[in-house]
Amino acid sequence: MTESAISIVIADDHPLFRQALSSTLANHYPASCIYEAQDIASLQQQLSLLSQVDVVLLDLNMPGCIGFAGLIHINANYPQVPVIMISADDSQAMMAKALTNGAAGFISKTSSAETIYNAIDTIMLGDIWDPDKLLQKNLEPNEIDEQNARLIASLTPMQFKVASLLINGLLNKQIAAELSVTEATVKAHITSIFRKLDVSSRTQAVLVLDKLGICGQ
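Above: the chain's sequence. Below: its structure in token form.
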């Protein structure tokens, strides 16, 4: 057990897993603040409101995104916050891809509590949690992965939210109501999204966003 006071956000869409992990971490880090997020939108809100976040534990597939889209987006907009990916898929290929996409570490959902503590403690010291030395194998993302990562990273947090609602088929008026902004603001964000994705219609935008791993809330 450590008395280190750190701030942790657990982002996973399964309440029982979040609660179990939160309880496990609270036992080891009793002086710390532990927050929970059930989707990418609530994770974005936590990161924007909290004055300090020391580490995010992010599920691989969350409402709002699948794969590494969430990781890339968080890294681009909150580069000071290390992200540990969590997944039931603990293949070396998956772990390697997480690390090459900027994860500070990767934890299997079947990992022991001790492994989780070791990963967090390692990252809190400024290191990468890479017990299998995967980064030493000079793994590089392919050209398509790099291009997709650049597109995701180019979206601001609000544009990411608008994109997620756009995929759901919401009209500008509905998106504006959902985000508590004006229709003009929504139109401006959609125009920027179209420009960044190099598309000219909602249908084209949805197809590109789907390929990027950005999905509806």
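The chain has two domains: 7-137, 155-212.
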